[in-house]
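Write out the 3D structure for:
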Amino acid sequence: MSQVIPEKPLRVVVWSTGTIGRHAIAGVDAHPDLELVGVWTSTEAKSGADAGELAELGRELGVKATTDRDELIALRPDCIVHGAMTDDRVFESIEDLTGFIRDGVNVVSSGPVILLHRTGTLPDEMIATIDEAGREGDASLHVNGIDPGFANDVLPLVMTSLSQRIDHIKVSEIADYSTYYQPVVMRDLFGFGEPMDAKPLLWEPGILTTAWGPVVRLIAAGLDVALDEPLVEEVERRPAPRSIKTVSVDIAEGTMGSVRFRVIGTVGGVPRITLEHVTRTDASAEPEWPVPNEGDGCYRIEITGEPRMKVEFSHHGEHGDHNVSGMIVTAQRLVNAVPAVVAAQPGLVSALELPLITGRGLVSK
């Protein structure tokens, strides 16, 4: 399938004005195929503020933010770019997204990542409800980003097109999270800065499979591989060797400072697809763990077989570090997917169902 080029600009609402939303506003404004018509904010203090101000563009866009859902739906946008926090309200956010497509508005969203792939995680009846809402509103829902998302679904699958034989695929994020601003994620989900005997949600059995299992299962689906169930989880947490301050949480010496985890898909007990995260809050910690070849963060794809292949993908913000650019690439994966998702079949669609998505129209003039 070739990339989708709309006949006229698509009307877009950006849902949130935080770490992803403000970059999405800038992305929609810069895209020749899109027109920003509305912005939602959860913060009363931001209601009525111009979108250009919220995105720190240095100019007004003539679009005011609002906390009123129905006001934005009444604009009849073609698509919502949804970047609101979903990690701490997974099922409530699924209801929100389902409501949007039932109301006839297509959605691209950075979460919940449990919707990255339709099978193996959520009950079939929940996916059927989303599909029915999509048919009712003739609208589609696509959840993606950078990780989970492009770096561990589209990129590794494209690489496999060069393979003669595939023995094992490993997709990794290797990153320093000290400049990643998400206090809820950092403290409550990961447990950074908490005592080593604390039990944050992410390390409870089955949660990693819920969060990152869809990535492993999507790769398997793209390669027509039937995985053993359940997926295998491995976690190794390490205490901070010294006290440090991050933008999200202060980490005292001896509290949790680093983690390495894996979600592994096996076939007949043999590992075939592995997702790994190596997450530090101090770049000098755990030197024996994998490190980026350059910079402070990367995504790495390693394919063992014939031939053996490795790709390391890194990014860095023009005016910030890799965590800033991480928010930009997440937002842009959604923004640039809007035309393809608007043209897609109704219901939940994954990267496997979408055509080529590029940065068409974004080359500097």
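The longest strand covers residues 165-176.
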